[in-house]
UniProtKB/TrEMBL annotation:
Annotated ranges, domain NAD-dependent epimerase/dehydratase: 3-73
Superkingdom, taxonomy of origin: Bacteria
Pfam families associated with the record: Epimerase
Stated name of the protein: SDR family oxidoreductase
Transmembrane spans: none
């Protein structure tokens, strides 16, 4: 199967490309690094030529609603339009568990993701939307986002994170299956409070920042109820536990850390 992976050089994209190629698929790696820009349309004709499935694991560099919405709307509209012209039969997009709830209550980045999902649902194209929980690789980024003067302030929200490799496996299985025309959820096997796992993660990296619970703390600019990051009862549970991920050499999102340097 010929599969075009949009965002194919990112955290999930690289893992997804490797997995699909190992399964024998003809994979097109599409990202700005390979000369393909889904937002401007540059290179999309060539990237999608002959593709049966399009997988969008790209992401916005911006968390504010206006900028994120501009990216996701423009990029998704291009992917749907160019995909239809190329005869793509299955549009797959990676999104976030809780997007619908957080879009209604908080807006921001999640409103932009919800708008992206609406475009896909209303396009008339065959699709599957993968909702994944937060990645282990982003725990350090959660700490950084909540840090002020060497104190990390986090809400008491509960989450159920998963390994990036498991996210890639979930997206690969969805992409190589038949379109389900709905959202499918995937989550890690364990629940943690944000401050619990962030504190543990920082200590394992010899990072001595003080981690505190703060009812006013925001999650990437968003207020959280206790269970808003949790999946529903029908979610598929990924196999990798946090301790096993760490023991296997788990590390933070190096791509983002290098981008900041």
């Amino acid at each position: 199967m010929r599969i075009a992976v949009i965002g194919g050089t990112g955290l999930i994209g690289t893992r997804l490309v490797a997995r699909l190629a190992a399964e024998g698929h003809d994979v097109v790696v599409a990202s700005r690094a390979t000369g393909v820009n889904s937002y401007t349309g540059e290179g999309l004709d060539e990237a999608l030529a002959g593709a049966e499935t399009l997988v969008d694991v790209s992401n916005s560099d911006y968390l504010d609603e206006a900028a994120a919405n501009e990216f996701f709307y423009g990029s998704t509209l291009n992917l749907l339009t160019y995909g239809a012209a190329a005869g793509v039969r299955h549009h797959v997009a990676l999104s976030v568990v809780g997007t619908d709830r957080l879009a209604r209550t908080e807006g921001g980045y999640f409103a932009a993701k919800a708008a992206q999902e609406r475009l896909i649902r209303q396009s008339g194209r065959a699709y599957s939307i993968v909702h994944a929980t937060q990645f282990f690789e982003f725990i350090a980024n959660i700490a950084d986002a909540g840090t002020n003067r060497n104190v990390v302030r986090l809400s008491r929200a509960v989450f159920q994170p998963m390994a990036a490799d498991d996210v890639a496996a979930a997206v690969a299985a969805t992409a190589t299956g038949v379109p389900v025309n709905r959202v499918v959820e995937f989550a890690g096997p364990e629940q943690f409070r944000l401050e619990e796992l962030v504190r543990r993660h920082l200590r394992e990296r010899s990072d001595l920042r003080d981690v505190r619970v703060d009812p006013l703390a925001r999650y990437f600019g968003t207020d959280l109820d206790e269970d808003e990051l949790l999946p529903g009862p029908d979610a598929t549970i990924a196999p990798t536990r946090y301790a096993d991920w760490l023991a296997a050499g788990g590390r933070p999102n190096v791509e983002l850390e290098e981008r900041r340097a």
